[in-house]
Amino acid sequence: MNHARAGVGKTVAEQRETTGEHVVFDDVSMSFGGRRVFRNLSCAFPQGKISVVLGGSGSGKTTILRLIGGLVRPDFGRVIVDGDDVTQMRERDLYRVRDKLGMVFQSGALLDSMTVFDNIAFPLRERRCLLREQIAERVGVRLRSVGLHDVDGLLPSELSGGMVKRVALARALIQNPVIVLIDEPFSGLDPVTVKLIEALFVKINRETNMTMIMSSHHIPTTMRMAHHVVMLMSDHVIHGSPAELAHSRDARVRRFLTEEAEVGDVFERLDQYEVETGLGGHRKP
Q1: Is the residue at 282 inside a domain?
Q2: What percent of the chain has pLDDT over 70?
Q3: Is residue 200 part of a domain?
């Protein structure tokens, strides 16, 4: 996967001159078994902005997040995270980088046997020496920041899909990370909840100036909220602002954006029909 420009999009070198990059992929190549995932991948994610990684199934969207967290290593190249090359770090040294990261998994990955409060408090209890009152205060602040109230004692099984996403986000933010990695945040959500979660990301980014890097296949939300987009194509990567990609000279880019948006619209209309008719069951945001 080679580096390319998106119409009037910027090269990695140009991005470094015009924006402060927080995460940089420099000539990264990686294979799983005999399957090539990335070849000479170079791109950057700007600091304090919302960046979205787009691509088809199997294109490596989630692998990007795993590389940033040092959970996997490339065959060649560098991954610079907040100034540190995670590809050269020993496992014990990676904890210093991971302390700067928050992670929201696609499924939420909440612990089923723990209450909402205990799920969010878990990282603090594991990594911080805090009094019970201090933990309770921090958990309360984070729950309010994602718009949740009176849910402390609920179990994950008692939450709607949108609530699970918000609790997972609160847990990811509990240690005040500088970078949040978010995997497919809109998967399985109805249209109303999609817009609620989207607005929440925008609000938190504006209030905290936190760098957000998410993988997604949801084109409408990407075009509305992203500052920067990295699109993984079969043989290269294209990146730029949503407007730059929309006006790309590459017909494949325009087709991908159009076709994915049309598919998303179909599913959104279907979800809305199920909500309005009750055929899809009762759903809470």
Answers
A1: no
A2: 84
A3: yes
Give the chain's radius of gyration (CA, Å).
19
| Closest C-alpha among 213, 160, 162, 206 to residue 183 | 213
Total domains present in the chain: 1
Angle between helices 132-145 and 161-173 (to 10 degrees): 130
3-state secondary structure at position 229: strand
CATH number for 22: 3.40.50.300
Kindly state the helix (H) or strand (E) to which residue 270 belongs, with its residue range.
helix 251-277
Distance CA 59, CA 80 (A): 21
Listed as own residue / partner, the contacts of 126-135 with beta carbons closer than 8 Å and 24 or more positions apart are: 127/99, 127/175, 128/175
By DSSP bridging, strand 76-81 and strand 84-85 are antiparallel
Q: Is residue 163 part of a domain?
A: no
Domain that holds residue 79: 2-100+177-277
Pairing verdict, β 76-81 and 21-32? antiparallel
Please report how many Cα atoms fall inside a 13 Å half-sphere around the Cα of residue 111, on the Cβ side.
12
Query: Does 127 map to a domain?
Result: no
Amino acid at 166: R
Tell me the torsion sign for CA atoms 118, 122, 125, 131. Answer: negative
**How many residues in total does the chain contain?**
285
Joined tokens for residue 236: 């290269």
pLDDT tens profile 23-62: 999 999 999 888 889 999 999 999 999 999 998 888 889 9
Q: What is the pTM of this model?
A: 0.82
The two counts, helices (H) then strands (E), for the chain are 10, 11
Nearest CA to 45 among 78, 12, 17? Answer: 12
Place of tokens 């029909």: 273
Positive or negative, the CA dihedral 143, 147, 153, 156 is negative
Q: Which two three-digit tokens encode residue 85?
A: 């090359």
Place of tokens 């990811």: 172
